[in-house]
Write a structure and sequence with these properties.
The complex is a heterodimer.
Chain A: E1 10-16, E2 23-24, E3 29-35, E4 38-43, E5 48-53, E6 60-62, E7 68-71, H1 113-122, H2 140-147, H3 162-177, E8 180-188, H4 190-201, H5 211-223, E9 231-234, E10 237-240, E11 246-248, E12 250-251, E13 257-258, E14 261-262, H6 270-286, E15 289-290, H7 291-295, E16 299-303, E17 322-326, E18 330-336, E19 339-353, H8 359-373
Parallel strand pairs in A: 4-15, 11-16, 16-17
Antiparallel strand pairs in A: 1-3, 1-6, 2-5, 3-4, 5-7, 8-19, 9-10, 11-14, 12-13, 17-19, 18-19
Chain B: H1 3-17, H2 40-54, H3 69-81
Helix pairs in contact in B: 1-2, 1-3
The chains are: A alpha+beta, B mainly alpha.
Chain lengths: ~375, ~80
Amino acid sequence: MPSLGADMEAGTLVEWLIKPGDEVHRGDVVAVVETQKGAIEIESFETGIVSELLANIGQTVPVGEELARFGTEDPVASAPAPEPLEAPAVVAKPHKATPQAPPIPTTDTRASPAARLAAQERGIDLSTIDGSGPDGAVVLADVEAQAQTTPTAPPTKGGLSEMRKAVAAAMVRSKREIPHFSVSHNIDTQHLSEWLSARNADRPPSERVLLGAAIVKATALALRSVKALNGHFAEDAFILSDEINIGVAIALRGGGLVAPALHQTDTMTLDEVMADMRDLVTRARAGRLRGSEMTRGTLTVSSLGEKGAEAMTGVIFPPQVALLAVGAPQIRPWVSGDTVVPREVTRFTLSADHRVCDGRQGSKFLTTLEDILSKPEEL
Amino acid sequence: MTEQEIRDLFLNEINKVAPDIDPSDVSDDDHLQDDLELDSMDILSLVTALDARLGISIPEADYPQIETLTKAVRYLAGKLAG
């Protein structure tokens, strides 16, 4: 069971996508695991033939425990997939038995993360619900409608959803362990917005690029110049990352926040960044994010969007060491030459870990970002 | 296409973008961003879907004209008639 978040201790197996005898390659999606942050697709770390599945559907497995084994020979015919949880759960030796979870109310039903959590909290079997979402996916409204006729489980202790608990745990740990400092900079983004508008004008909606994608790409390029912000802090040491994988904070409708990352963002074209961000948002809301996307981020961008408040100071996602918060663009007085003119201005606030860097690097990062954003044609 | 059909189609696409929004709960003057809390990515997904369904590529400058159900039905009906 891989760790899919800073404070994840265990995950509940929702679905196996492999069986003994299957050939699996490194990176293939092999299972779906329910975490506090919703359903996540788990990828294989190895290539080989599946010889044995060790976890049952519905079983909660601690991080680090084996989920399956690979062999070099044909799978043993007598090693079938574990029975569903209705039967007594048996974990193959020497695999240590783990606490049994209550039956998770779904197997392979397509459902949004909010629907899965709501169903789990209320003890509703998702497979009994006719989904009204895309491709028949069960959505929160379907679960709530079903709940009207289904006895409900006791309310979550303290009134916090599992998602909110996960966010709270990660943020408390971050604020407790990371000596945050922040550096802010106002950047004239009017030229960038005008350039994007002109670029999008001749394109169908499916090919348009949002301001957020341009900022994500520019952030990745700026990180090339300030490597001290790009990596993970673990076991009292900072590990620089060879890759620049920008995490994108995505607010989930129904509550919660996830930050899957774009792989090697600095090497992607602007159109590729936009396409992958659309894909991430779609899959985040459908509960189909992958484990690697949840763990490979090396710096996260969190944006207030194109309308709203001017500034935000974010909390770093451990084990990352920096987070860039982007305020909504505002029209502000701006000195240009000898005159003051109204311009679109966006405030960028970098939160960083003082164990690994200081204000000088934060300042360099933001001024580099400003320079890159002033030349959007080069993105 | 009647205005009722356009209305139903628009609400259906909103529901696809944001499945937690029940079409029956959307008021004529609910603002897509301020009231229904669609973000810029949601709006782009909605516009992309409308382009695919109706063949109408809504330019960014016209987004304010679809910011409520009432405005959107009027705008799309005009485009289809034109």
